[in-house]
C-alpha cells in the first residue's frame, strides 16, 4: 500500500518515473545495482536487509560508484537518522512529511543536494554536537566556507545560502565542492553533521 502510494505521487510528476519496486532489502539492492536509478527510496524496516544495510550497500563508504539514496520511514528515531547519514543517504524523510516534500527530496537528491525532514534536522544534528576540534587530516576552511557550512547545517538550500550570504548560486556550489574535498565528505548531509559534531554551529538561526 505504501509503495503504491509513493509510486502514484512520483509518477504524477512529469519529470519522474518509477523503474522498479522491491518488497525486501536484498531485492532492492539487486535491482538498484542492475538498473542504476537516479534516486532510490528506501524504508528503514524491510525483510531480508533493513534500510540501513541497503543504504550502506548502495551509497556507503567504499562503494565504487554510489547511488543516491533517500530514506523514507515512519520511525523518527535518532539512531536511524544518524545511521542513514553515516551510511551515505542523501535524504531522510518521514512518511507523514507529505507528497510535496517527498517530491522535493527526490529532486534534491537528483541535483546532488540533500533534504532531511525539518522535524528531525536541527534536533538530530544539535544532539551530535561536541566541542570544536579539527577533523583528522582536514584542511582548514576559509571564513566564507565556514559561513556556507553554518548555513547548510541549519538546513538552507543552495539558493537560500546564496541569498543569505549575498553570493551567486555558482559560487555556493563551488564552495560546497571545496568544503567536501577539504573535509573528505561526500554530500551536504555529511557537511551538516560535521558542522554540529565539531561545534561550527551550536544554536538555531
Automatic annotation (TrEMBL):
Key words, A-Z: DNA-binding, Phosphoprotein, Transcription, Transcription regulation
Stretches assigned to coiled coil: none
* Transmembrane segment boundaries: none
Q: Which GO terms describe its molecular function?
A: DNA binding
Signal peptide stretch: none
Looking up Gene3D superfamilies in the UniProt record yields: 3.40.50.2300
Residue numbers bearing the 4-aspartylphosphate modification: 43
- Give a GO biological-process term: regulation of DNA-templated transcription
Q: Where is the Response regulatory domain?
A: 1-110
Q: Where is the HTH luxR-type domain?
A: 134-199
Q: Which SUPFAM superfamilies match?
A: C-terminal effector domain of the bipartite response regulators (SSF46894), CheY-like (SSF52172)
In Swiss-Prot or TrEMBL terms, this protein is called: DNA-binding response regulator
Q: What is the lineage of its organism?
A: Bacteria, Bacillati, Actinomycetota, Actinomycetes, Micromonosporales
